């Protein structure tokens, strides 16, 4: 076991040297000459065939140039070149790592990776910015997206459901800026979130009842706080006989449901024609006989259509929004509605918001990287021209006997006000609803 660890450390040390990069670059140039001689035949080869071809060519290249490398170092160069020719080069291992959540590249030699909510610098690097751009364009080619000086900013969805954002010169000063957000192949279930400590049993039961009772839920949180994962998890509570329409800017949701219609916005052509916004899609989704509408993220004028849908019979809809607290979430909705050209008064807008949204679930990423539901707040109405709320649960961190940071959710002892949940409470003998906690 120790021998294997030591060998892995030696491999990593060699791969991260300038010598490795120089030899790999020279061997790559030699390979390109051989590939040009093969012509179209090379394009029909399988990955296994390419691996065998690279192994033989690199071995011959090292022997001919008399480069002092051992067998393991030759293998490492051959593996890197196979990934370069048949895959995505240095990115391939990171994209295959299930623990990696985000890959952030600030120029060819500055790579950061987020694992379990913690961002750390990665030793991986590219040969130069041209090498990095070559890999990025290989990712974009099957997606039909262009990246050049006239179109220096691209946002795209990867085939596995991840998201890629690239900014290059002249907008990016220090080289290509690449951001890759990965998503799990198997979405987290509510039970997984409970096991990970994102919520406890009481919150689990409340959210399950809220979804099944067709409450409208807004998931609020900051960047990389787990909003999409929580929304995916809540979808496990949806009844199977309902038709669900999802509307997203970049399709990220992967709902575990038998009847899902996925809609994705379109940025349009280079000339600016053919644009289809989230607002257009929500408006059209109302004609598609949805039982529930799920908006991946509310960030613009679509907020008006979302509120109207929630107020006109599409109960049980859900969405995410960027905000740091439930109150800021409400302010952001008002601001977005104002930017969208809402024509009514401030009081009418607030009544519409209060009538549309039942619960705001605030999720956050703690300094340790752990993601936790930090608050569940119910919208109870409008009073004195202010949207009134009541916080049902609040997250607190505390230190255990061994100094380990632990979680608890404090119940404020208030029962949900929504009539949608009232019918799910047990009845007393005289027919009144009891105040038993849901």
Helices and strands in order, then pairings?
Layout: H1 2-15, H2 18-38, H3 47-65, H4 71-86, H5 91-96, E1 100-106, E2 111-115, E3 118-122, H6 129-140, E4 153-157, E5 163-167, E6 177-181, H7 190-196, H8 201-212, E7 217-221, H9 227-234, E8 244-248, E9 260-264, H10 278-285, E10 292-298, H11 302-311, E11 318-322, H12 326-339, H13 346-356, E12 359-365, E13 371-383, E14 386-399, E15 405-411, H14 419-422
Parallel strand pairs: 7-11, 7-12, 8-9, 8-10, 10-11
Antiparallel strand pairs: 1-2, 1-6, 2-3, 4-5, 5-6, 12-13, 13-14, 14-15
Helix pairs in contact: 2-4, 3-4, 10-11, 11-13
- Give the averaged pLDDT, no decimals: 86
Elements, N to C (H/E): HHHHHEEEHEEEHHEHEEHEHEHHEEEEH
Overall helicity:
25-40%
The CATH homologous superfamily of the largest domain is named P-loop containing nucleotide triphosphate hydrolases
Q: Helix/strand/pairing class, anyone?
A: alpha/beta
Could you please say which CATH topology of the largest domain applies here? Rossmann fold
Q: Mind telling me the C-alpha Rg? A: 26 Å
Number of helices: 14
| Proportion in β-strands | 15-25%
Order the strands across the largest sheet as they lie in space: 9-8-10-11-7-12-13-14-15
Morphology: elongated
Protein name: CpaF family protein
Domain Bacterial type II secretion system protein E: 85-362
Family: Belongs to the GSP E family.
Region (Disordered): 418-438
């Amino acid at each position: 076991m120790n021998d294997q660890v030591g060998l892995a450390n030696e491999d990593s040390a060699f791969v991260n040297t300038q010598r490795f990069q120089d030899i790999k670059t020279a061997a790559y140039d030699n390979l390109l000459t051989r590939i040009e001689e093969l012509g179209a035949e090379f394009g029909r080869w399988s990955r296994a065939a390419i691996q065998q071809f690279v192994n033989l060519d690199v071995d011959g290249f090292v022997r001919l140039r008399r480069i002092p490398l051992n067998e393991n170092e030759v293998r490492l160069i051959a593996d890197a070149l196979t990934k370069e020719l048949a895959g995505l080069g240095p990115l391939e291992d990171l994209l295959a790592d299930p623990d990696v959540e985000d890959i952030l590249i600030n120029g060819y030699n500055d790579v950061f990776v987020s694992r379990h909510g913690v961002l750390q610098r990665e030793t991986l690097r590219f040969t130069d910015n041209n090498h990095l751009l070559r890999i990025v364009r290989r990712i974009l080619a099957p997606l039909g997206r262009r990246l050049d000086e006239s179109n220096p900013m691209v946002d795209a969805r990867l085939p596995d459901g991840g998201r890629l954002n690239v900014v290059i010169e002249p907008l990016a000063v220090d080289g290509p800026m690449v951001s890759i957000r990965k998503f799990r192949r198997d979405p987290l279930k509510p039970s997984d979130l409970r096991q990970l400590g994102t919520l406890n049993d009481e919150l689990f039961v409340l959210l399950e009842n809220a979804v099944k009772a067709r409450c409208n839920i807004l998931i609020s949180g900051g960047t990389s706080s787990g909003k999409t994962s929580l929304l995916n998890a809540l979808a496990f509570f949806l009844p199977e006989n309902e038709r669900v329409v999802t509307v997203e800017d970049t399709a990220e949701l992967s709902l575990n449901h038998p009847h899902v219609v996925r809609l994705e916005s379109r940025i349009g052509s280079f000339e600016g024609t053919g644009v289809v916004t989230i607002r257009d899609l929500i408006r059209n989704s109302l004609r598609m006989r949805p039982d529930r509408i799920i908006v991946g993220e509310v960030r613009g004028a679509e907020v008006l259509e979302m509120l109207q849908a929630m107020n006109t019979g599409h109960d049980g809809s859900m969405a995410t929004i960027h905000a740091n607290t439930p109150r800021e979430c409400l302010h952001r909705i008002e601001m977005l509605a104002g930017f969208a050209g809402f024509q009514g008064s401030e009081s009418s807008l607030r009544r519409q918001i209060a009538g549309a949204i039942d619960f705001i679930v605030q999720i956050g990423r703690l300094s340790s990287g752990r993601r936790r539901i930090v608050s569940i707040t119910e919208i109870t109405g409008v009073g004195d021209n202010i949207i009134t709320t009541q916080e049902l649960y609040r997250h607190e961190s505390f230190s255990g006997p061994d100094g380990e940071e632990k979680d608890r959710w404090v119940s404020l002892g208030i029962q949900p006000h929504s009539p949608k949940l009232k019918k799910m409470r047990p009845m007393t003998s005289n027919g009144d609803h009891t105040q038993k906690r849901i």
